[in-house]
Amino acid sequence: MRSCCKTLIQSSLPFPSLHNSKPYYLSNSSHVFPFLPRALPSFSFNSSTPRAKLPHTFHIHSTASNSSSSAALGVAISSESAEDEPQDDPKRDTVEHLLTNPDDISRLMKMERRQQGDCEKRWFPYLDAFKCGNGARLSSGDVLEAMAPYMMEERKERFRTAVKNRSYSVCLVVEGLNDFGNVSATFRSADALGFQSVHVINPDSSKRYRDNRHVSMGAEKWLDIELWDSTAECFQVLKSRGYRIATTHVGTDAVSIYDMDWSCPTAIVVGNEHSVCRGISDEALGLSDLHCSIPMNGMVDSFNVSVAAGILMHHAVCDRTSRLGRHGDLTAEESKILLAEFSLRHSKSAISIAHEYAKRSKASTPVPKL
C-alpha cells in the first residue's frame, strides 16, 4: 500500500497478524490479496456512550492504489469536526427543551423586537437596537463592529450568505405537536431553505421524548421560534402581520401547491398525524384563508409531517425564485440587523463582548461642557 494509507482495519486482517500469515492468492490470478476471505465480525456502539466523548465524525474513504506489480485497495480514515454544532449548553439547544421552556426561546433572540401592533407594509421582527445590561443601546453596526475581531472571516461569510437567502415572507407553522423529532426535522429544513420564522402551536409538554438535537443539527439556534397556546391566537397575529394562512389538507376544495403564487406573504400550516387525530385541526381549517395540497399518485394520501413541510418549503422557494429572481428578500437595513442578530447568537461570550464594547464607547464619549 502507498504511504497515504495511514490506518489499517485490523479486524479484517488475517489472524493473528499480517506478518505471520501466508499470502492469499485470488483464484485464476497471480495477484496477492492480503485479506482472508471470511466474514467480518459485527460491531456495535454502546448507545449509552456520552456524546461528549465522541467529538468528531469519522468517515471511511476508499482510494484505489495502482502499482506495476499489484492493485491494492487503500482505506483511510479522516476526522472532521461538526462545524455547525452549537457550543452552548446542550440541554438548552435541544428542540424539546426550547419548546417546553418558552423563556429560553425569548432569550435566544437578542436584538430588540417590534411590538405586535407595530407592523409596517411587511413583517420584520427586529429593531435596529440591542439593549445592554447597563441600559446602553447598540445599533446593528455597533454589534458587528464589536464582534468582528472575535469571529473568523469564514464564519462571517457564512452568516452573510445565510442572511442573503433569508426571508420572512413565507413562514412555517406546526400545529398539534406530537413528535419533537418531526418538528426538529422541519426546523432543519426551514433553516436550510432560508425560512427564518417558524411557529409551533400547542406543544405537548406532558409527553417525554428523546433528545433530538442531532435531528435538527442545531438549526433552532438560528431560527426565530414563536410558541402559541391556541390556533386562533397564532392565526390572528399572523394575519395582522400580513400573512395569508394556507393549511395543508386533502379535500376537494384544496388548491395544488403548484397553482399557488408563493410571492404573496404566506404562512404554511402543517399538522402531525397521530392515532387519535390526523393532520390539521378543524379549527385551523376553518380559520385559514385557503387549503392547499401536494399532488400524490400513490396508494397513500398523506406524507409524514416533516416530509410534507420540506416539500412545501422547497416548492415555495423554487416558485419565488422563478417569479422574483430569488427567495431571500431582506432589505439592506434588515440584512444588517439580522447579521447582528446572528453575531450575538454566535457564542456564549458574544453578549459579554457587546457589553464591554458599550462600556468602552460610553467611556470614550466626551462629556459636553455646560
Question: Could you walk me through the main structural features you see in this protein, from its secondary elements to its overall organization?
Answer:
The protein has 370 residues and is an alpha/beta fold. Helices cover 32% and strands 17% of the residues. It has helices at residues 90-93, 95-99, 102-108, 140-147, 153-164, 180-193, 213-216, 231-240, 282-287, 305-324, 332-345, 350-364, and strands spanning 24-25, 32-33, 56-66, 71-81, 130-131, 137-138, 170-175, 197-201, 224-228, 244-248, 255-256, 266-271, 290-293. The chain has a seven-stranded parallel β-sheet with strand order 9-8-7-12-10-13-11, with helices on both faces. The chain has a two-stranded antiparallel ribbon with strand order 1-2. The chain has a two-stranded antiparallel sheet with strand order 3-4. α6 runs parallel beside α10. The chain is elongated, with a radius of gyration of 27 Å. InterPro entries: Alpha/beta_knot_MTases, SpoU_MeTrfase, TrmH, tRNA_m1G_MTases_N. Residues 170-314 form the tRNA/rRNA methyltransferase SpoU type domain. Pfam families: SpoU_methylase (PF00588).
Provide a compact summary of the structure.
By secondary structure, the protein is of the alpha/beta class. It has helices spanning 90-93, 95-99, 102-108, 140-147, 153-164, 180-193, 213-216, 231-240, 282-287, 305-324, 332-345, 350-364, and strands at residues 24-25, 32-33, 56-66, 71-81, 130-131, 137-138, 170-175, 197-201, 224-228, 244-248, 255-256, 266-271, 290-293.
